[in-house]
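Forum > Structural Biology > Help requests

Title: Can anyone predict the 3D structure of GTPase IMAP family member 8-like?

Hi all, first post here. I have the sequence for GTPase IMAP family member 8-like but no way to get a structure on my laptop. I'd be grateful if someone could post the structure tokens.
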Amino acid sequence: VHAFIIIIPKGPLTDEHKAEVEIFQTIFGSKINDHTIVFINQQSQRELLHESLHSVIKACGGRYGFYSSRTDAAELITHVKDLLKENSSHLYTKDMYTHAQIQTQLQYKREKQNLQQQMTERTMGNQTQ
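Reply #1:
Sure, ran it for you. Structure tokens for GTPase IMAP family member 8-like below:
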């Protein structure tokens, strides 16, 4: 994959938008950030970015652009080409995705084991009382 594009509406990020970005990063792993461009729906590039967007943009290497109903594909293609140059034409690969999925499964397994251990300890504690 040459690039992932996150489209964000103008204004502050809602909790729902933040959760969607986190899910995106969980599914594809942290390497996704090296291949992501943030596009913000904004009529004027002169408007200041809302503070809540800064963390998402920073996580994506500071790569962002603006779009509106007048924006054509040329700007998007320019951003993707810049990203490819920045990554020395290294693409996000199936192996990266597979690695991210394995890491996610291992994390879930560790969390499940921790919860099971806590439940066992509480059950044992209740039985001794």
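The beta strands are 4-8, 36-41, 64-67. The first strand starts at residue 4 and ends at 8.
Shout if anything looks off.
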